[in-house]
Design goal:
By secondary structure, the chain is α/β, with parallel strands linked by helices. The chain has 8 helices and 7 strands, in the order ααβαβββαβααβααβ. Helix 1 packs across helix 2.
Length: 236
């Protein structure tokens, strides 16, 4: 039996995955297409905590032989997933070179002390033809531009590990912040080949008042770089 908090979180994932243009909608569709073209033998969700992303993909028909959740504080609640505890900023991933077909790094890179180390490891383990899906909040989301113009602290950024200053919100442990161009440049610098790169909506945008959601859609339509979240599909 799944604990109530995890079950509620998974229901939210299922809901988001049904909304066109959201992060999880894109994730499900891209992995579905990939799994139809190539066999997914080994997949891993880095920083996936309980592995809900992998279970979501299963629900949409994605099949794999081995599935791993790697996290500093894993929550092993799904029996068909293998959970491994390690630090993505300093511990080598427990896979041979070029052996993993699908790597997920979903809303995680912004939490890492050393994202460079993690990206090197992802490139090392990714199989020829395999894909890595990497997402992170976009510092240049249009509300942040307005917040900066008013001398307020941008959303997704934190100056303290204790509380939020300069705006409302709660501490979530973001150590790094990326813009559309900075993440793209970083991935290219590490030798990744970009198959898809865009900004998407998330549960954050879905919680905005209706009129702000409309503005968000309009801004995104005219400037793809100002969306809420950065979404990348890469190979090596």
């Amino acid at each position: 039996m799944i604990e109530p908090v995890a079950e509620a979180s998974f229901k939210n994932k299922v809901k988001e995955a049904s909304i066109k243009g959201t992060l999880l909608f894109e994730l499900v569709n891209d992995v579905q297409r990939f799994s139809k073209k190539a066999k997914v033998n080994i997949c891993c969700d880095l920083g996936g905590r309980d592995g809900g992303n992998l279970i979501l993909l299963e629900r949409y028909g994605v099949k794999y032989n081995e599935a791993y959740v790697i996290d500093l504080f894993p929550r092993p609640i799904f029996k068909n997933l293998k959970y491994i505890r390690l630090d993505l900023s300093k511990d080598n991933l427990p896979f041979n070179d070029s052996s993993v077909d699908l790597v997920l790094l979903i809303e995680v890179i912004e939490h890492l002390i050393d994202p460079d180390f993690c990206l090197k490891e992802i490139k090392r383990i990714l199989s020829p033809g395999g894909i890595a899906i990497i997402t992170t909040p976009n510092l240049a989301w249009w509300p942040n531009i307005l917040l900066l113009a008013s001398a307020s602290q941008p959303i997704f950024t934190e100056v303290s590990s204790r509380k939020i200053y300069g705006r409302k919100g709660s501490v979530v442990g973001h150590l790094r912040v990326f813009t559309y161009l900075s993440l793209l440049e970083m991935l290219l610098d590490f030798g990744f080949k970009i198959l898809k790169y865009k900004t998407v909506r998330t549960s954050v945008t879905e919680q905005l008042p209706k009129f702000l959601q409309i503005i968000d859609l309009l801004v995104h339509k005219f400037n793809k770089r100002l969306g809420c979240d950065i979404y990348c599909v890469a190979t090596k």
